[in-house]
Design a protein that fits this description.
This protein is an alpha+beta fold and 625 residues long. The protein folds into 4 domains: 323 residues, Nucleotidyltransferase, domain 5 (2-Layer Sandwich), CATH 3.30.420; 73 residues, ATPase, substrate binding domain, subdomain 4 (Actin, Chain A, domain 4); 127 residues, Substrate Binding Domain Of DNAk, Chain A, domain 1 (Sandwich), CATH 2.60.34.10; 84 residues, Substrate Binding Domain Of Dnak, Chain:A, Domain 2 (Up-down Bundle), CATH 1.20.1270. The chain has a 6-stranded mixed β-sheet with strand order 1-28-27-26-23-29, with no helix packed on it. A hairpin with a 4-residue loop joins strand 27 and strand 28. It starts with a strand and ends with a strand. The structure holds adenosine monophosphate. The site of adenosine monophosphate has 19 residues, from helix 6 and helix 8.
Length: 625
């Protein structure tokens, strides 16, 4: 079987680039790659820190600091320091209105459905641009550590992110100079990091409990033969480790009879107590009590803070997460015993009370928390990047194709074989036939897009199925198979089943298409839907008429002696009329005339025609060469 590999842009074969995995988090972000020696994922660290706080500081002199350099400004200059950008991605002001005041920086209040903006030093930024600053810093860190240019990435997002949030993440990557090969669900990445789903024969149900700094997500996944499917998600976008910190601050305020409102008004005082509370909380993940010293309004407070006090401060928050787990399990329509493994993600799953509550709810002795819960999503993203790089060929991962894929059929029509939004990998087959007697070669042209006529879509490639043995039109059975792999490679195979003549082509459907172009193609298909449908119907009517003309001519030639003179004369008259009307654009007239010819010739056609010709009068035809 011949195999042609085409790089649509330049026809060359390219050396694989390093693809990084990025966990773009609400609180922290990080990058991981696969160690080329041992094949294991690891997080890249620059000066010891693998984690880049998702924080930006806009210095009044125009300088923008990212990550650790920006973090101290949360206290010194909260109005110009941006955190939790991820919460704003793909959102409008109306979406986040209820929480707008909880941000230390100013979110522009326009009651519209447009994208949120923030104003920094007189300039407006949207969350896509802000996220791009973080991604750019991650990219530059990775380039410095690896000493190579990085152009491609896989970025993770929460399972519940909608299309616009996913698109916003992709766009942020693009602004940062990254070609985002795939957006992967965080729970999928976390499972991959634990090797779950890497074995194709494994069928499992997994709960991924992700408690980060500001968000909580629970996801129930089903993994079947390496394909991940989200059964249910639940969570609370305003519950996380920050709430634990706040609960400690409240407890301390009560202890020292301070008004929380007064402290909250003084933003830098609040931030400094909060950071101290966070520090204490972290120590309590491996100690039972901590010595604390607080200085509030000139008064020094020294005290011991115990794990019991902490557990009681956070118990209602932990309970809230368990309530979400309950709902997710219910929505997934699985029993607790159906859930095979629990994966713990996010820094706050280091809190012992959290681990215990999760084990108790899911009735498990063990949960997966062996890996660093801050790194687990990035590690999984690196594994996904490795899969996309083609290094783990046997692995399937669920994704969807953004545009429909199909072939050109008679009349220049697009015949969609894999519709847009189909899950990937996908294998679809369909049968076609020829439209001319003795047709030896068949052109198979592959297109991508949503328009009805192929000329409005994007041509991906074409090939010729040659060597079809001579057969009457409609007789060959041409089976066309589209196999779209997890890595986005489309393989098209055409086989003439009667003679077993076969030909295959491999192409990369999205190569060279930017997301904006994909969007434009979709938009055009919506805008032109009505006219496109009219064009398709007209083209179909014409093709049908042409087929009938061809078959009737053949019928008369082959069977002239068996037909009466009157029958031949009338058929020729109707044929001429049909030839005339198909030159015009009136579909109804073409259909009527086709019908007339059909009605007239049907009785003697039935009498005379062999099955081959009968077959040829129906079904889809591919144009002859
Ligand atoms: P993430 O959003 O996953 O980066 O989670 C960050 C959250 O994890 C913050 O609220 C941190 O305070 C919290 N965290 C990090 N380390 C620990 C620890 N050792 N114990 C408890 N919480 C922690």
């Amino acid at each position: 079987m011949a195999r042609i590999s085409i790089n649509i842009k330049d026809g060359s074969v390219k050396k694989a680039d390093t693809i990084i995995g990025i966990d773009l988090g609400t609180t922290n972000s990080l990058v991981a790659i696969i160690d080329s020696v041992n094949g294991l994922p690891y997080c890249l660290s620059k000066s010891d820190a693998t984690i880049v706080p998702s924080i930006l500081y806009f210095n009044p002199n125009g300088e923008i600091k990212v990550g650790n350099a920006a973090k101290p400004h949360l206290i010194t200059d909260p109005q110009n320091t941006i955190y939790s950008i991820k919460r704003l991605l793909g959102r409008s002001y109306t979406d986040i209105q209820a929480h707008a005041n909880s941000y230390g920086y100013r979110i522009i209040e326009d009651e519209t459905k447009a994208m949120i903006r923030v104003e920094m030093n007189g300039k407006f930024y949207n969350p896509i641009e802000l996220s791009a600053f973080i991604l750019k810093a991650l990219k530059e860190n990775a380039e410095a550590v690896l000493n190579t240019k990085i152009k491609k990435a896989v970025i993770t997002v929460p399972a519940y992110f909608n299309d616009s949030q996913r698109q916003a993440t992709r766009d942020a990557g693009k602004i940062a100079g990254l070609d985002v090969l795939r957006i992967v669900n965080e729970p999928t990445a976390a499972s991959l990091a634990y090797g779950i789903g890497l074995n194709k024969d494994e069928n499992k149900c997994i709960a991924v409990y992700d408690l980060g700094g500001g968000t909580f997500d629970i996801t129930i996944l089903r993994i079947e033969q390496g394909v991940f499917e989200v059964l249910a998600t639940n969570g609370d976008t305003y519950t996380g480790g920050d709430d634990f910190d706040r609960a400690i601050v409240m407890q301390w305020c009560q202890k020292f009879e301070l008004s929380i409102e007064t402290i909250e008004k003084n933003k830098s005082l609040y931030q400094s107590i909060r950071l101290q509370a966070e520090h204490v909380k972290k120590q309590l993940s491996s100690n039972n009590e901590v010595d604390c010293e607080l200085e509030i309004e000139g008064n020094k407070h020294q005290f011991k803070y115990t794990i019991e006090e902490f557990n009681s401060a956070i118990s209602s928050i932990v309970l809230r997460t368990i309530e979400c787990c309950k709902m997710a399990v219910r929505d997934a329509e699985v029993g607790l015993t159906d859930i095979n493994e629990i994966v713990m993600v996010g820094g706050s799953t280091r809190v012992p009370a959290v681990v215990n509550a999760v084990k108790a709810f899911f009735k498990k002795d063990q949960v997966h928390n062996e890996l660093n819960p801050d790194e687990v999503v990035a590690l999984g993203a690196a594994i996904e990047a490795d899969i996309l790089a083609g290094n783990r060929k046997d692995l399937l991962l669920l994704d969807v194709t953004p545009l429909s894929l199909g072939i050109e059929t008679a009349g220049g029509l697009m015949d969609t074989i894999i519709p847009r939004n189909s899950k990937v990998p996908q294998l679809v087959g369909r049968q076609y036939t020829t439209s001319v007697d003795g047709q030896a070669n068949l052109k198979i042209a592959i297109y991508q897009g949503e328009r009805e006529m192929v000329e409005d879509n994007r041509k991906l490639g074409e090939f010729i199925l040659s060597g079809i043995p001579a057969m009457p039109a409609g007789f060959p059975k041409i089976d066309i198979q589209f196999l779209l792999n997890a890595d986005g490679i489309l393989k098209v195979n055409a086989t003439e089943l009667r003679s077993n003549t076969s030909q295959t082509i491999s192409i990369v459907p999205q190569y060279g298409l930017t997301d904006t172009e994909v969007e434009q193609m979709l938009l055009a298909s919506f805008q032109n839907a009505e006219q496109d449908m009219q064009n398709r119907l007209l083209a179909e009517s014409r093709t049908e008429a042409e087929q009938l003309i061809y078959q009737c001519q053949k019928l008369i030639q082959a069977n002239a002696v068996l037909l009466t003179e009157m029958e031949i004369k009338e058929t020729e008259h109707l044929l001429n009329e049909l030839r005339e009307v198909i030159k015009g654009n009136n579909r109804d007239t073409i259909n009527e005339q086709t019908e007339r010819l059909n009605d007239y010739t049907r009785p003697f056609a039935e009498r005379l025609m062999d099955t081959a010709i009968g077959n040829a009068l129906t079904g889809k035809k591919l144009d002859a060469l």
